[in-house]
Amino acid sequence: MSTLAVIDYGMGNLHSVAKAVEHVADAAARVIVSADADVILAADRVIFPGVGAIRDCMSELQRLELDDVVRECAKDKPLLGVCLGMHALMDHSEENNGIECLGIFPGTVRRFAEGLKDDKGERLKIPHMGWNEVFQTMSHPLWKNIADGSRFYFVHGYYVEPQGPEFIAGSTNYGGLFTSVIARDNVFAAQFHPEKSQHSGLTLLENFVQWDGSL
Question: Which domain holds residue 125?
């Protein structure tokens, strides 16, 4: 039986993520919520979730000595970043007056501009909250059985801006297109919350449980 570790650094709907994975994995994987570096590094797959502020995220990762653990997992282990966990994978974030992140993906986390408007000219609220479409810009195993343009659940005021288009696996329109999914090698990260995204989100988690990290 394979093992899947959900990184517990005190930020995120950890048990909601774990329950969702347990639901789709059935007997295929054992799901462990842990802050133990040895447990995480021994797992076959790792989920790096998160909600809240990037300053607190990075502070807790460093305090628990999990920052290098995430970097190590990103080298060769199937790794799924979710929401704030996705932000932490970047080089730098504009949030909290500027925070250095893990540097696994080249690029920056930026705040949505004020005054964003929809196609009808109506002002959009920040944070971006609720259901929105994700347009697949890369062929990837985690998109299996998920239709292009499927809707997922978002809650965020910042978004990632990778250095190159080769890292963009999905885009979403909110007053203009922003990158909602990034991927490279064995790492896949999404701005939305798959555990809150009903059928499409559960399908993505099921695909992750079955993914060996290859493209």
Answer: 2-210
* 195 labelled catalytic: yes
Token duo for residue 121: 């000219």
> Which residue shows structure tokens 């259901």?
131
- Asked whether residue 184 is domain-assigned, the answer is yes
The yes-or-no answer on residue 193 being catalytic is yes
Condensed to tens digits (0 to 9), the pLDDT of residues 144-171 reads: 999 999 999 999 999 999 999 999 999 9
Q: How far apart are CA 85 and CA 12, in angstroms?
A: 9
Of the residues 83, 95, 156, 206, which is catalytic? 83
pTM: 0.97
Q: Which of 60, 95, 195, 206 is catalytic?
A: 195
For residue 56, the domain's CATH number is 3.40.50.880
Asked if the structure places residue 215 within a domain, the reply is no
Our count of domains for the chain comes to 1
pLDDT tens profile 97-109? 999 999 999 999 9
- Exactly one of 87, 128, 156, 193 is catalytic; which is it? 193
